[in-house]
Amino acid sequence: MPEKPIPPGGETEQAEVAAFRRAVGLEALIDVHTHFMPERVLAKVWAYFDAAGPLIGRPWPITYREEEKHRVETLRGFGVRAFTSMLYPHKPGMARWLNDWAADFAARVPECLHTATFFAEPEAVDDVRRALDQGARVFKCHLQVGGYDPNDPLLDGVWGLLADHGTPVVTHCGSGPVPGPFTGPGPIAELLGRHPRLRLIVAHLGMPEYEEFLGLAERHEGVMLDTTMAFTPFAEAAAPFPRAALPRLADLRDRVLLGTDFPNLPYPYIDALRALERTGLGDAWLRAVCHDNAARLFTV
């Protein structure tokens, strides 16, 4: 029997998420891939999704299209004790003011893991150093939207600084939903060859190049993966995770982190959790992924 659809948000979905937590033995979740950004920027992002723009490739309804305070309360209602404010520039000159907004958001929302970003531009090192001084704990690097090469010489100092600080970087580097000029495992393998101490979190399990990014995680201790959209029917229709690779994902249990893409989900939040449950990797794996690994990484 197919699972009964759950209306997104509200008490019913909160109860379903709470039931998931109880079933696997967790009091709370930590979600390392959620998006909060200035309202006018988020409105443009939603408009792009609504138009199924070229980086989207198909209809993508926004499930949690609500004002900021309501979105924060929704995550709190789901028992998410820590989450990020993933934001990213698509052109030079954006990163610093996005980081200033994110610093204010983190100050206003105690559950937020203070997030920052950067772009391949001459000011990049100064922007990252400034964000670190403001208290940034995690960075977002979106190679698909930014359209820049992670190996651009303008970013050498950025990667060195982040490696020295041990600050994780959530990186959209897989070629899903559509390839970009610098997506895929090749540029990241080159980057790790030059900066092997980087703490790099590969978003979306590297979709659709899952196995190649699993290989990078197996070879580099600092490489982690987040589960954003993985195993959901929406993602499986376009880029199914190879079931033969599930044992490798199980072996990497301590370096896989829950991510969802909230609020930009084309389905309810509970569906992302149920998709992880359907992998059959067990409650211990789910506890590690949905809470313990991120709690250890961010000491929360």
Chain-wise SSE layout:
Layout: H1 10-24, E1 29-31, H2 39-50, H3 68-77, E2 80-84, H4 95-108, E3 112-113, E4 115-117, H5 124-134, E5 138-142, H6 143-146, H7 156-165, E6 169-172, H8 185-194, E7 200-202, H9 210-219, E8 223-226, H10 233-236, H11 246-251, E9 256-257, H12 269-277, H13 283-298
Parallel strand pairs: 1-2, 2-3, 4-5, 5-6, 6-7, 7-8, 8-9
Helix pairs in contact: 1-12, 4-5, 5-7
Q: How would you describe this protein?
A:
There is one protein chain. Helices cover 44% and strands 10% of the residues. It contains 13 helices and nine strands. The longest helix has 16 residues, at 283-298. The model has no long low-confidence stretch (mean pLDDT 96). By secondary structure, it is an alpha/beta fold. Helix 5 (124-134) packs parallel to helix 7 (156-165). The strands form two sheets. A six-stranded parallel sheet has the order 4-5-6-7-8-9. A three-stranded parallel sheet has the order 1-2-3.
Short descriptors:
single chain, 300 residues, alpha/beta, 6-stranded parallel sheet, 3-stranded parallel sheet, 10% strand
The quaternary state of the protein chains shown equals single chain
Any idea what the radius of gyration is? 18 Å
How would you write the strand order of the largest sheet?
Answer: 4-5-6-7-8-9
The run of helices and strands is: HEHHEHEEHEHHEHEHEHHEHH
Structural class: alpha/beta
Q: What is the beta-strand fraction? A: 5-15%
Shape: globular
Q: Which residues form runs of ≥5 with pLDDT under 50?
A: none
- Give the integer mean of the pLDDT values: 96
What share of the residues lie within helices? 40-55%
**What's the end-to-end separation, in Å?**
39 Å
The total strand number stands at 9
Count every helix, treating DSSP H or I runs of 4 or more residues as helices: 13
- Major β-sheet profile: 6 strands, parallel
